[in-house]
Specification:
- By secondary structure, the chain is of the alpha+beta class.
- The chain has seven helices and five strands, in the order αααββαααββαβ.
- The strands form two sheets. The protein has a three-stranded antiparallel sheet with strand order 1-2-5. Strands 3-4 form a two-stranded antiparallel ribbon.
- A hairpin with a 2-residue loop joins strand 3 and strand 4.
């Protein structure tokens, strides 16, 4: 099957994958964007797992103050190089995570930090497990994995804090 450049361009914009990777996976799934996107996403998650042990000593700190100035959040997200910290993908991720923290009030970063024997639901109190406020079909962890696949470096949320007036 002949795959057109518009189809390749659209898949590339959705996933951030390379042109040849997009072309190959579109040919494999006979032009189905949804199946190709899912296959590339799974490949990116596998690639992200191989980068998990790399040291992250660069990154950014982002703050977000919600309209009205009554709620705010700060988050530190680290990556391997300052070059990646300046990319639009990384900046979008850190801004979205700061907004997520302000909106959803997570207490812990991951399920590993939950106290033993607790009744708390991980999806409610663990940032990485929470559904993303802009797209509830995806978790914050999936957002981070997507950025790792796009930028080719390890990315980790290091710490965060939420501030609410009177809390």
């Amino acid at each position: 099957m002949q795959i057109g450049t518009e189809l390749i361009r659209e898949l590339r914009e959705r996933t951030g994958a390379g042109i040849m990777d997009c072309k190959r996976v579109l040919e494999q799934f006979e032009g189905s964007l949804e199946k190709a996107e899912e296959a590339l996403r799974e490949k990116g998650i596998a690639k992200a797992g191989s980068k998990a042990d790399r040291v992250t000593s660069e990154g950014l700190i982002e703050s977000y103050i919600h309209a009205g100035g009554r709620i705010g959040a700060m988050v530190e997200i680290n990556c391997e190089t300052d070059f990646v910290a300046r990319t639009p993908e990384f900046r979008e991720l850190i801004h979205n995570v700061a907004m997520q923290i302000a909106a959803m009030s997570p207490r812990y970063l991951s399920k590993d930090q939950l106290p033993e024997g607790t009744d708390l639901l991980a999806q409610e109190v663990c940032l990485l497990e929470q559904p993303f406020i802009k797209d509830p079909s995806r978790s914050i962890n999936e957002l981070v994995l997507d950025v790792i696949a796009r930028v080719g470096e390890n990315v980790q949320i290091r710490r965060f804090e939420r501030f609410g007036l009177g809390e």
